[in-house]
Amino acid sequence: MHAGPISRQASGQAKHQHAVAGTEFNNAPRSGNLMPQRTQHDGTRAHHTVNAAQVRTGANGARIALGTDWPVVPLDPAASLHVAVTRQTPTGEPAGGWLPAERLKLAEAIAGWTFGSAYAEHAEDQKGTLAEGMLADIAVLDRDLVTAPTSELGELHVTATIVGGRVVYEG
Predict the structure, then answer these.
(1) CATH number for the domain including 96?
(2) 124: closest CA among 59, 65, 80?
């Protein structure tokens, strides 16, 4: 399912249907407040629907697969990761994040980009984790993703890419 706000009933069925919540956090606007630009209904909507972050594993049993929604938005995984974890635009708005309870933890976001996306394409037995016998598709970043301040996640740069165990990009 392409998971934007969905009904609580549909959310509860996610585990039983082996659903994957495909989300593209980079659809957030580049500046300004997320709320008026990303909601179509009044404030009561939050009482009747749940966000993809609530459908994630541990909440209702669905797996979450993250992507960029390219070519609709720029192919920028770092920007998408920043929005998923902070619920803020690249300019830091709104302060404290939009619906901060729906932030993903960094580990959840990383899992969504890696194992979750592999699971969504039925390839979790070949890729999505770093383990012996798995495809070695790896992005090498310019800093430690885990220790970088969340405010800097959108500024990460890829310094090398390895696909199938071969270096295909160095920059």
Answers:
(1) 3.20.20.140
(2) 65
